[in-house]
Amino acid sequence: MIRFDCDYLEGAHPRILDALVRTNFEQTPGYAVDHYCEEARALIKKECKAENADVHFIVGGTGTNTTVIAASLRPYQGVVCAVSGHINVHESGAIEGTGHKVISLPSDDGKLEADIFEEYCRNYWADGTHDHMVQPKMLYISQPTENGTLYKADEIKRLREICDRYSMYLYVDGARMGYGLMSEGNDVTLPFLSENCDVFYIGGTKVGALFGEALVIVNDELKKDFRYMQKRQCGMFAKGRLLGLQFLEMFKDGLYYEMGENGIKTAYRVRDAFKKAGFSFLCDSPTNQQFPVLPDTVLDILSEKFSWDYWCRVDDEHSCVRFCTSWATSEENVSALEKELEKFSVTRE
Question: Quick check: 13 and 21 in contact, CB under 8 A?
């Protein structure tokens, strides 16, 4: 079985594993105050051109999201996101578990349109009883989104302007950041995010690390006592050097971008193979997640050799599924899929 279910099917890049093995018996302080973590922080701040930022290492995305949101908001405040946002759909009520409401707004492609966001904020503050309702204090977006789409720089700037107008924080979930950075047409960089966001994270779990995310806090308001909340939310890893060491390896000579590039290169081959076979897509994704719409009969045949992630029902005879590539997706596996899809191309002709 060749699996295209997600981008964390494999373990970790060999260079990361080598670094972990090579330093296995070294003794270092715990809780991410060791020299490996410090070196990794320095590299990340340099890459982001944000020398005054605070960098924290957290094991996974959900833990990062819950810790950031819980640390940033007061009890009566909530976080706004697209209806398809990860915190709204795929985190099992983790955010609500911290006592903060997730306020979801409509979205067709995973991105939250500035006009929709602005209208919500305007209506909220125009309501004479707004102090009886959850106050929106943070905007959460993902880059890339759950649908594989990307925000352009001007779209993020517009969202930033609205956040400033209504005194809200802008938080960017970068679980798949490495793939977004290497995507065709992308014009968002890490320094750009440092200039336009209050806080964001650089994903490692889905981009070649064994586990781990690097949180970058730019806004001074959000820095104070963050480690207290990290500990309280069970997000402070005792063997913290295992996190720092991985990001040190990824950012010391561009490995992070190299891994992201493989995910994109193989995803475009997958995309082109489905297009050549005559199939349509749920949305136009320039990243490592592709969403072909396929007849159930085709899915039955493909399922004998391949696996994927079910996305949604389209009609009585078609479903949308997600084929996801990664830093480790091999040319051989993509070639096998291409060869299989050629059969449908001939049939449809």
Answer: no
